Amino acid sequence: MLSLPESLSDIEFSRRNRRVVYYFVGLGTLIVLYTIVYNVALARLEGVDQSIVASFEFVIQTMTTTGYGQDSVASQSPLDFASGSLDCEVTAHGCFG
């Protein structure tokens, strides 16, 4: 039977596994940070008070490039630049990683 380690310090990761853990922790941190920044910017710049879940959905849709047709409007807003730059950053990270 497989026994679990007593503490996290008992686990020995290979270099590859450490990088995978760092990647997922970094990605999770980046998603949370972008969600908070988008939610605050939307409230302050456009006066729209939406839930953090809706902001999280927007960030995930932008990062995965699945689209967000329900958020698109015919007008230009200050967050158009922010969402465009986020998309460029995610694309650049994917290419140059």
From TrEMBL:
Gene3D superfamilies on file = 1.10.287.70
User: SUPFAM superfamilies attached here?
Assistant: Voltage-gated potassium channels
Keywords attached to this Swiss-Prot or TrEMBL record, sorted alphabetically, are: Membrane, Transmembrane, Transmembrane helix
* Residues that span the membrane, as ranges: 20-41
Top-level lineage group:
Archaea
Q: What is this protein called?
A: TrkA-N domain-containing protein
Query: What lineage does the source organism belong to?
Result: Archaea, Methanobacteriati, Methanobacteriota, Stenosarchaea group, Halobacteria
